[in-house]
């Protein structure tokens, strides 16, 4: 690739739909006294043209002759081929089966071609199809040029002007290669398909035995035959001589073209045979020695030699390549290269109006006369000043692009700005009880509600819904997740339309009723709103709030019920209970009995009663001289809600007062696991009982259906047999069935209560484990996930087996004795209701034990799984 | 680049395929008589001069027209006669990034221009196929449009007819008065051109398409009354004189040539033949042509729209002096004082 370009002096496209090859171009003087060269072009389609390049734009007068010769033109040569006069330049045209020589006659005003003579290739046997030709003063005849035609099968036919002299077969020729005549040695050099250069002396060829299948000269059609006897005479002189090569040299490459010139050695009188191969340039001496070899870094297409005016050698060389370039060599050195507009297949140097112009022809007929440009080729740089800039346009585009850039640079996906914001306003004081008549609850739900002063205990929470986007939303569906201890009329409703923008938020009243049969487990309510944005994208937002404590409990004068208790130690001075539970104290309405003792003892009463209609209470006692709190109750599950509330409030209080190093812990030597196990057993036995009752119910129902069937048969029968007290049996069975169904119902209710109790106790145990072993939040989360406080019994899986599996899993993985958790080789077992709970209790004990010994559930070891025992023995 | 063309009158110069025009009046983009739209491709970017701007590319039988969608005054008209080569290469487009583009190398008024067009429709080869096919059809039909001397157009004393050509008349015994003695020959009058050839030398002939004729007159000469055909100055401005043998026939032939000239110079047979592969007749009926307001803004500034398209940075060819370099032995562009080819080469070669 060169920096420089060749500049076009004159150019035209000759022919349409025609093809050209290396031999299709000749440049030379067609008249001996001419000072300007002519270009002769013969296409493979058989049209011969003579042009006179004139510089500048092509004009119609630049074409001198255009003639359709009717046969493909395989090659052209200019030379002294015409016998009549030495000053006439003949144009030798090679057709596949004919060699014709024309002259250009310009005398008649308009130039025209006239045929001097022609030879038709006719053979005695077989055909002679021409491939290429060469010319020169064969045999040292200085005044005339002869022509040697090589056939496609490696025979050569020599014509001395209008006479055929001989035809010989070359040795070892499979596919003919380029052939040239070396005047200095009077020999021909050709390239063979064996990748060799071979030289044949003219005299040897002429004197060898005639090829019997050689062409018989069809006679010169247009001119009288001057002498037809010369081949015969020569043959008789050198009889029985065989064709032999003078020399042969292997190049190892397919030869594209051969030229003869003084190129390699400065000042030498000897000529070189220059052969260009597919990738190398060879210089071979006239005696067959390789003098030069040069690797080419391009694919050569055409070659020509021209006079070297510097005089150190006679010739310089142009090689063109298939990447639109030409390269100029002086000896082995590249002295120039230039970019062309196409890839020429033929190249010549000639003098027109200027000396040393390069004529190129490409395979589609683009004929150019070029000279070397010295300005470096300018890459097609766009001149920005050329167009007037529309600044408004540019500005707008810039803004748009900046927006795109900004949007793409924030890696997180942008949360759409249009969303629903929800906020709940929870009243701080109890409201008047709602009238019973206002409610359209179902009876069984109504029964559950806590009654107060002939009404229902109720709490109205205001839910504010605001939409930040413009426009309005339709069909926003709101769902509530309410703990079991609270009841609402509907847990899901839909808002038909919600206005956006700056409109006042929509207010929805949600009325909660306290459940008189469920011990409070949690008081957290979560609300979800789901909607479709303007673009049809489904989105959701949520909010959480806590129901106030007075919704679940109320204060009563202090009582003493120390059946179950736990103690919390803190590292801070005691906080008056009246301060911690100021809202409750306020709600109690200043009852003196409560008021007096409220600093150190508070008793809470739930709405719920136990099986014996005794209200459930929980009491908090504060040690007067240390930050030590005791929570006690006669009913174990009742400890949870109040105890949890105490923990939460303590934490909140010290966070608000800046006690960042606040700590509390459970300081008893043992966890109350036995009580926990009792609770599990109760729950488990209820499950067993439920299963048994269900089984009985199933049997009974089966029996009932059988009796029914028999009775039906009897009633259908025309001649019915007596009933034989079957009706009594049926009535009995029916009663029993009803009784069993009631049992199942009651057991289910009992199981519900026990499940809730178990849930409360599990939560309590969890928090005690956390406080006792000082678990961090992550470990607590893991533990809570395994020892789940969510007790959800169903037909398939119960809490016991699920928890047992989770405990086993913990013990085999993070709590494994020898850190063997990595394998994770814990077989997933099918969960089945166990026969008893001893295994579960054992596993929970071991877990608690290992935690007590300092085992870590999560964190520390980076990624769980491989937890190891620390501390240990 | 004259803004006004007396298009339509016989003898007017047909510039559409011979010139490149930049940002010309939309009136000049309308097809002239005999010219017709072959393909119209939307969403094509002029990657070189108006990178980033969408436009439509219209291929007629004479030229390639590109007009911006946004401003119809931003346009290009590239005559097929100026096209040197067409290649498909990779280009960088603002609208599509790296993509294949149609490179059109042209030469007009001794300057080389390069045009790059990119189709913004993904994987649509239509841009390439249409332009290439029409250019080929144009290049292989030059005889319809170009004056030709000494061509091989006569075989066995008969005119070799072009595909769309019909011979209307053959006038024997016609003398060409170009040389002093005159040449006896024969006239062929067809729907495309007037051809004369010498009876003795078939190679001595001239083929003049009507669109290259400037005028047809009867004039007195030293040989008597003669039919004089004057060709367009852009193709040489030749004056061809003919004498017809029975002098009465002169007026008949003159009238015949005159009337054919009036018809076919206005509405020439351009010879660019094509067949649409997938014909969509409904599209033509549905298509609403782009309507442009007929406001001509007189540009007082020098029109430099073409600057962006220079293929060689605006260095015209043929303006430089050519000298013979005695070092290399070839003709070269003359160098400034003190520089030689070899030191230029060693600098560049390093």
TrEMBL record, chain A:
InterPro entries documented for this protein: PHTB1_GAE_dom (IPR028074), PHTB1_N_dom (IPR028073), PTHB1 (IPR026511), PTHB1_CtH_dom (IPR055364), PTHB1_hp_dom (IPR055363), PTHB1_pf_dom (IPR055362)
Pfam families given in the database record: PHTB1_N, PTHB1_CtH, PTHB1_GAE, PTHB1_hp, PTHB1_pf
Signal peptide residue numbers: none
Domain of life: Eukaryota
Source organism of this protein record: Tetraparma gracilis
Region feature Disordered, mapped onto this chain: 213-232
Stretches assigned to the PTHB1 GAE domain: 459-545
Taxonomic placement: Eukaryota, Sar, Stramenopiles, Ochrophyta, Bolidophyceae
Domain PTHB1 C-terminal helix bundle span(s) in chain numbering: 775-851
Domain PTHB1 platform residue range list: 548-658
Comp. bias intervals (Low complexity): 214-232
Annotated PTHB1 N-terminal domain residues: 1-376
Positions of the PTHB1 hairpin domain: 670-772
Name of the protein this chain belongs to: Protein PTHB1
TrEMBL record, chain B:
Name of the protein in its database record: BBSome complex member BBS5 PH domain-containing protein
Domain BBSome complex member BBS5 PH: 35-89, 165-219
Subcellular location, principal: membrane
Entry-linked InterPro entries: BBL5, BBS5/fem-3, BBS5_PH
Keyword Membrane annotated: yes
Transmembrane regions listed in the UniProt entry: none
Keyword Transmembrane helix: no
PANTHER family assigned to the protein according to its UniProt record, in alphabetical order: BARDET-BIEDL SYNDROME 5 PROTEIN, BARDET-BIEDL SYNDROME PROTEIN 5
Family listed: Belongs to the BBS5 family.
Record's subcellular location: Cell projection, Cilium membrane; Cytoplasm, Cytoskeleton, Microtubule organizing center, Centrosome, Centriolar satellite
Taxonomic source organism: Tetraparma gracilis
One family name in Pfam for this protein: BBL5
Entry keyword set: Cell membrane, Cell projection, Cilium, Cytoplasm, Cytoskeleton, Membrane
């Amino acid at each position: 690739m060169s920096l420089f370009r060749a500049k076009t002096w004159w150019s035209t496209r000759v022919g349409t739909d025609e093809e050209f090859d290396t031999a299709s171009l000749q440049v030379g003087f067609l008249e001996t006294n001419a000072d300007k060269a002519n270009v002769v072009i013969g296409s493979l389609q058989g049209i011969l043209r003579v042009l006179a390049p004139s510089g500048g734009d092509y004009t119609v007068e630049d074409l001198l002759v255009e003639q359709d010769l009717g046969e493909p033109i395989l090659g052209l040569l200019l030379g002294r081929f015409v016998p009549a006069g030495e000053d006439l330049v003949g144009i030798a045209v090679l057709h596949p089966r004919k060699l014709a020589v024309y002259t250009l006659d310009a005398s008649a005003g308009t130039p025209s071609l006239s045929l001097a003579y022609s030879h038709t290739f006719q053979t005695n046997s077989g055909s002679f199809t021409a491939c290429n030709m060469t010319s020169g003063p064969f045999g040292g005849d200085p005044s005339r040029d002869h022509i040697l035609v090589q056939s496609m099968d490696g025979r050569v036919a020599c014509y001395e002007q209008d006479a055929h002299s001989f035809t010989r077969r070359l040795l070892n020729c499979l596919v003919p290669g380029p052939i040239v005549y070396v005047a200095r040695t009077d020999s021909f050099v050709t390239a063979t398909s064996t990748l060799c250069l071979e030289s044949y002396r003219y005299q040897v060829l002429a004197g060898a035995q005639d090829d019997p299948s050689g062409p018989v000269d069809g006679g010169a059609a247009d001119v009288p035959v001057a002498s037809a006897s010369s081949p015969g005479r020569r043959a008789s002189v050198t009889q029985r001589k065989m064709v032999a090569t003078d020399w042969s040299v292997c190049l190892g490459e397919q030869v594209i073209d051969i030229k003869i010139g003084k190129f390699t050695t400065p000042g030498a009188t000897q000529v070189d045979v220059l052969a260009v191969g597919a990738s190398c340039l060879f210089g071979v001496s006239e005696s067959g020695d390789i003098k030069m070899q040069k690797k080419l870094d391009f694919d050569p297409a055409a070659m020509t030699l021209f006079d070297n005016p510097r005089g150190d050698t006679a010739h310089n060389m142009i090689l063109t390549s298939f990447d639109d370039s030409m390269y100029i060599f002086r000896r082995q050195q590249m002295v120039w290269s230039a970019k062309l507009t196409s890839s020429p297949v033929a190249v010549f140097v000639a003098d027109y109006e200027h000396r040393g112009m390069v004529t190129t022809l490409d395979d589609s007929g683009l004929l150019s006369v070029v000279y070397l440009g010295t300005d470096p080729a300018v890459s097609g740089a766009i001149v920005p000043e050329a167009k007037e800039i529309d600044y408004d346009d540019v500005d707008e585009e810039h803004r748009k692009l900046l927006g795109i850039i900004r949007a793409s640079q924030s890696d997180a996906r942008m949360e759409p700005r249009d969303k629903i914001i929800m906020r709940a306003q929870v009243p701080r004081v109890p409201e008047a009880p709602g009238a019973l008549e206002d409610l359209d609850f179902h009876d069984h739900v109504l029964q559950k509600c806590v009654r107060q002063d002939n009404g229902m205990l109720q709490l109205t929470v205001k839910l504010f819904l605001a939409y930040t986007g413009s426009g309005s939303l339709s069909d926003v569906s709101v769902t509530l997740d309410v703990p079991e201890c609270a009841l609402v009329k509907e847990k899901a409703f839909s808002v038909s339309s919600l206005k956006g923008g700056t409109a006042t938020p929509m207010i929805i009243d949600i009325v909660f009723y306290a459940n008189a049969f469920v011990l409070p487990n949690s008081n957290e309510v979560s609300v979800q709103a789901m909607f479709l944005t303007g673009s049809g994208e489904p989105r959701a937002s949520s909010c959480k709030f806590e129901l106030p404590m007075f919704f679940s409990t109320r204060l009563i004068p202090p009582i003493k019920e120390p059946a179950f208790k736990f103690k919390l130690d803190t590292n801070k001075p005691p906080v008056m209970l009246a301060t911690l539970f100021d809202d409750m104290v306020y709600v109690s309405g200043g009852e003196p009995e409560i008021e007096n003792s409220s600093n150190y003892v508070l008793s809470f009463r739930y709405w719920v009663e136990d099986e014996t209609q005794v209200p459930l209470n929980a009491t908090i006692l504060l040690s007067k001289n240390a930050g030590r709190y005791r929570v006690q109750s006669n009913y174990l599950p009742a400890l949870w809600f109040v105890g949890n509330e105490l923990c939460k409030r303590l934490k909140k209080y010290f966070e608000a007062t800046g006690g960042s190093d606040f700590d509390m812990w459970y300081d008893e030597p043992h966890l109350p696991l036995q009580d926990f196990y009792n609770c599990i057993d109760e729950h488990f036995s209820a499950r067993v009982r439920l299963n048994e009752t269900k089984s009985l119910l199933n049997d009974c129902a089966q029996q009932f259906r059988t009796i029914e069937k028999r009775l039906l048969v009897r009633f259908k029968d025309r001649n019915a047999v007596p009933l034989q007290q079957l009706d009594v049996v049926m009535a009995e069975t029916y009663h029993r069935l009803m009784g069993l169904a009631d049992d199942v119902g009651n057991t289910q209710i009992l199981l519900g209560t026990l499940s809730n109790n178990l849930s409360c106790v599990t939560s309590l145990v969890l928090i005690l484990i956390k406080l006792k072993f000082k678990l961090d939040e992550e470990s607590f989360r893991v533990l809570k996930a395994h020892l789940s406080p969510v007790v959800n019994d169903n037909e398939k899986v119960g809490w016991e087996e699920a928890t047992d599996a989770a405990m086993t899993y913990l013990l085999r993985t993070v709590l494994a004795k020898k850190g063997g958790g990595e394998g994770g080789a814990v077989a997933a077992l099918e969960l089945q209701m166990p026969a008893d709970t001893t295994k579960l209790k054992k596993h929970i004990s071991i877990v608690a034990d290992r935690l007590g010994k300092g085992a870590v559930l999560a964190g520390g070891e980076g990624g769980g799984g491989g937890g190891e025992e620390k501390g240990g023995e | 680049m004259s803004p006004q063309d007396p298009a339509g009158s016989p003898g007017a110069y047909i510039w559409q395929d011979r010139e490149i025009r930049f940002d010309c009046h939309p009136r000049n983009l309308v097809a002239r008589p005999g010219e017709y739209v072959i393909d119209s491709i939307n969403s094509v970017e002029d990657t070189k001069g108006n990178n980033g701007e969408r436009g439509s590319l219209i291929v007629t039988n004479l030229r390639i027209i590109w007009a911006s969608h946004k401003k119809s005054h931003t346009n290009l008209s590239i005559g097929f006669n100026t096209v040197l080569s067409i290649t498909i290469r990779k280009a960088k487009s603002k609208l599509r990034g790296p993509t294949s583009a149609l490179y059109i190398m042209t030469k007009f008024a001794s300057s080389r221009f390069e045009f790059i067009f990119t189709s913004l429709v993904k994987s649509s080869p239509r841009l390439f196929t249409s332009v290439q096919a029409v250019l080929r059809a144009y290049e292989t039909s030059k005889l319809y449009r170009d004056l030709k001397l000494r061509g091989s157009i006569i075989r066995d004393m008969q005119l070799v007819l072009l595909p769309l050509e019909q011979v209307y008349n053959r006038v024997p015994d016609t003398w060409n008065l170009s040389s002093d003695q005159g040449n006896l020959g024969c006239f062929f009058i067809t729907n495309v051109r007037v051809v004369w050839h010498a009876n003795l030398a078939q190679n001595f002939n001239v083929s003049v398409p009507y669109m290259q004729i400037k005028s047809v007159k009867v004039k007195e000469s030293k040989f008597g009354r003669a039919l004089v055909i004057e060709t367009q100055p852009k193709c040489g401005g030749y004056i061809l004189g003919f004498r017809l043998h029975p002098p009465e026939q002169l007026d008949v032939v003159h009238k015949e040539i005159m009337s054919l000239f009036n018809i076919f110079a206005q509405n020439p047979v351009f010879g660019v033949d094509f067949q649409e592969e997938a014909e969509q007749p409904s599209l033509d009926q549905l298509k609403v042509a782009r309507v442009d307001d007929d406001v001509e803004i007189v540009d007082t500034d020098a029109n430099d729209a073409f600057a962006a398209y220079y293929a060689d940075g605006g260095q015209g060819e043929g303006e430089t002096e050519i000298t013979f370099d005695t070092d290399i032995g070839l003709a070269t562009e003359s160098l400034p004082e003190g520089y030689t080819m070899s030191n230029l080469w060693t600098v560049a070669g390093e």
